Fold each of these.
Amino acid sequence: MNTEMLIELVRERSSLYDMSDKKYSDHPYKESLWREIASEINQPVQNCKKMWTSLRDGTEELLKNLLQCQDKKQNL
């Protein structure tokens, strides 16, 4: 799966990740967005969601680790 394309397609649809977006809680709408993305990259919806979750969680973990490293350096 083309992860860069997936990231860009999700980025264009803020309702999937931006909690301040008015349609963030509209689950049927978000499902339709995932179907659009899956169609554009020719993958099943579940694969797209799984990859996005993996990318998001990995990024959060990386940022958390970077912040912890910065804190440790400041305390030396």
Amino acid sequence: MKMETSILFKNRLSIFTICSIFCVLTYGIDRPRGVSMEKASFYQGGTEFRCISTGKRIPMDHINDDYCDCEDGSDEPGTSACNNGLFYCENKSYKGNYIMSTRVNDGICDCCDGSDEYDGTISCENTCEKLFAEIRAQQEAFRAKQEAGYKVKLEYIQNGRRTKDEKLAKLTELSKEKEIFAQERDVLQAAKEEAEVPEKEAKAKHEQAWEAVKAEKKKQAEAAAAAVAFGELDTNGDQIVDYPELTKHAEFDIDSDGTVSDEEAKEYLEDSDQVDLVTFTEKIWPNIKEIYKPIGSKEEAQSEPTDPTKQEKTSEEGEAPADPANAKPVEEEQMPDYDEETKRLISVADEARAKFDEADRKVKDVENEISAIKKYLELDLGPEEEFSALKGQCFEYTDREYTYRFCPFEKTSQKPKGGGMETNLGNWGHWHGPENDKYDAMKYENGQSCWNGPNRSCHVNLHCGAENALIGASEPSRCEYQFEFTTPSRCSAPPAPGTHYDHEEL
């Protein structure tokens, strides 16, 4: 038993000695194979090693002796003895990384420098320089893209600041103009109102005179109609209409019993036995004109029994008598033109109104321009106005089914490639990036509602690019869309040529 222990110890010592010599030549003193510089301090100095996670003490010569003493495998960074151990690939000229210790000396080159296959079973080509060259090419392409985009961004910033300054100056100028125009409008409004007073009086006088003429004509027409009716009712021609003459007209049958009684006739004569033309015109005619049926009218013919011997003449024998009830109404007379003085007053008022309208238009135009400038200034176009170049532009991206449209600070939409209605995917809402970089993304909200679902919305991710371009569109969730957009506005100042980037940054 002691002999076996002694042999094992000698073997461990031999392995440790070989490893130590290799580590001194390759990595430097006190840094065993498979250990990174950041963890080298755990393996330096003393005669004992403490397992990193548990603190268990083991002799220093048990490091990389191909026997797992620590539960965390920290005593075997350079062998495959521990299933949970980690081996550090230094990968000089490229990028160091960890692999599982079980992959050490397994016949497969995992580290680009081949350090994981050191037992000589296979020979690994050192590909670190090649990988580094590829990474450098990517880094240089990324730097060049940043540089090109940043140059454009500087122009955007310059133009954006100039535009903002110009709009602020224009706002001040327009505010002064508005004040002047408003004062002119007030003066012209007073002149307009002053000119409209005599115009209104003259037009009212003319219209009142015309109404009086129409009333007189109407009165005369009523008197003429009353005279005609009086003459028809006065069947004996004695210039008097009495109640017996009314009983011959069926339209005066109040109770609809087929006859007109004396009492019914007298009721239409205002309880009088008879009336003359003046009384008939003033008192009787206004009450009966709506029901009175003139002799020979269609209404009268319908109220009497049909007599085959009294048929209307055919077209061969001559036209039938005209039916007054079917006669076309006489068109109402047009009011005569204004007199010359009234026309002059109207012309003066028209000129005053035109001047006021022009002044009012100027005020409203200035107000609209002021409103548009204020709306622009309220937009958050970036800390340095770098996103101002996107305002007023639209960009499109087409996939197999749709053409997507992105109008920054306005809306997003999609339209079928084969034609059809455009669907609003969302209107400008707000910046939607993380707290430390809110300009990383945009949110467009309250788009067209989905069938049996919410309103559509769109999340726009912004990336550095040498030009403005919509490069992708998708629908990760129902009615929630995502656009990818490149723009110089998102580019940062590039590092100097040859600056090293961490691989993760790519």
Amino acid sequence: MMVSLKREREDEVDDDDNEETGKLSSKVRRGRVVEDKRSRHCPYLDTINRSVLDFDFEKLCSISLSHINVYACLICGKYFQGRGLKSHAYTHSVQFTHHVFLNLNTLKFYCLPDNYEIIDSSLEDITYVLKPTFTKQHIAGLDKQGKLYRAYDGTTYLPGIVGLNNIKANDYANVVLQAFCNVPPLRNFFLEEENYKGIRRPPGDIMFLLVQRFGELMRKLWNPRNFKAHVSPHEMLQAVVLCSKKNFQITKQGDAVDFMTWFLNALHGALGGTKKKPSILTKVFQGSMRIFTKKLPHPDLMPEEKEALLVTEEYQEQMSESTFLFLTLDLPTAPLYKDEKEQLIIPQVPLFNILAKFNGNTEKEYKTYKENFLKRFQLTKLPPYLVFCIKRFTKNNFFVEKNPTIVNFPITNVDLREYLTEEAQVSEKNTTYDLVANIVHDGKPTEGAYRIHVLHHGTGKWYEMQDLQVIDILPQMITLSEAYIQIWKRQERDVTNNHAAV
């Protein structure tokens, strides 16, 4: 009696060790003995419904909510645990006569309730959608062609230029993820799982989940064999909620710059990066600058007291070196007056005006709780990809205010040489950048929405993505938007050859 109970219990879960060794084991099925480990063709393959298959969501059983031994029913698309006798998948197969299941971990197919493995090459497209893989040759050619691919649902799409579901209020995260997925060196690193599979993390460290989920999302966005022309970032965002300790949520609108700042630093740390040890993120985005800081006397002091303090060592200008992953550009204060038609004037400012912050001469006052400082900045090293954050929002104790100033910028050939120190101007060969991604915030500070403009490197065309909507856009339309985050790519051609050609 004890033996039969034990046998029945084993039937409820998978014996994956035996699966791997391929040993035949006999199990009791409805009073008869069958060889359930023998692989064979299945007569029910034509019942598979690829249009309902969606592997973007969390891999857990729809009944028990367990993550262990989860199987996808390929007829209705639902997830169930186990395949043994009395398991949820087994019960589902008997109750609804759905016979073909996929183990979401081992990527093996099974026919239930007979419980044998199915080996059939016609199922490869399903495993590829669940877990896309990329060869080095495939990755090397991604930016050299602009071929449209047809999804299983009949829609055509460009890999990489793919809409992301807005589950409720996660467009602030979607645009940042889409921007990073279109930065070629970052994309190439995450498309190949071998690049980060072997990174050692401390026991119990959950942050590496960010790396895994971002890699999975990257591969889905660039998959040329998708069943549908959009992707849900559900698993990626769940990792964000968990790893950020709920600072960033799916159901509550967030700030794209805040999210990007956290995501860059969290991903850098999860990849084993430190201040001294680089990661792919610091290799792609990190530059350096000099910061000149001068302490100011308290404004309430008498003039002679101020003069006396200014000659002391404490009030002399100090220089420090600092690295950066992005540069914050300050907008001039928006006018409060209305024009003759009683409409607010939307001011415009050239990009180079707000870049003057980094020319080494422009001083800006910074206030802390007790002290005031004058600071000026000058760049010493430019990264391969330069990120600008245009400071549109000012926050105080009562409300968030948005500056609607339009920044006028060229799409290509932005030369940053004049913002470098003299030594850096000699050492830096290429200082000219082209825009590759432009994140826009529309509407009110707390109720607005995000969209992104992305350059497709293979075709040279620009596309606008807002959640699931993807349309092509003229480059001159990009400059009319309220740009919030921009990613610029350094031109790779040799400056000397370039001048020679001119």
Amino acid sequence: MLMLSIMATIIFIITIVVMMLATLLSKKTLLDREKCSPFECGFDPMNSSRLPFSLRFFLIAIIFLIFDVEIALLLPMVMIIKTSNLMNWTMTSFFFIFILLIGLYHEWNQGALEWNN
């Protein structure tokens, strides 16, 4: 029991020494404006907070999430092809992909995917 407590004390002391050396030898500056300011997704946090938010950025993010979830639903369909009825699997897959393509066409037709406007 005595040996275990001695080992624990030695490990604790070595840990403290290494942490103190890492703190002293690191080249961290505390007065850097860029590193001390919070990161706000590309917005400058030092400016006024009453600037209008880009609705196109929000729309592109929502479209990305919708299509990302749909792709996550498509991936398991490949895995179950061997265990399911081929006709049911084919009809379900084509129907789901058809809905995806209609949604993509609608977004493209509405101009939501264009960045240069």
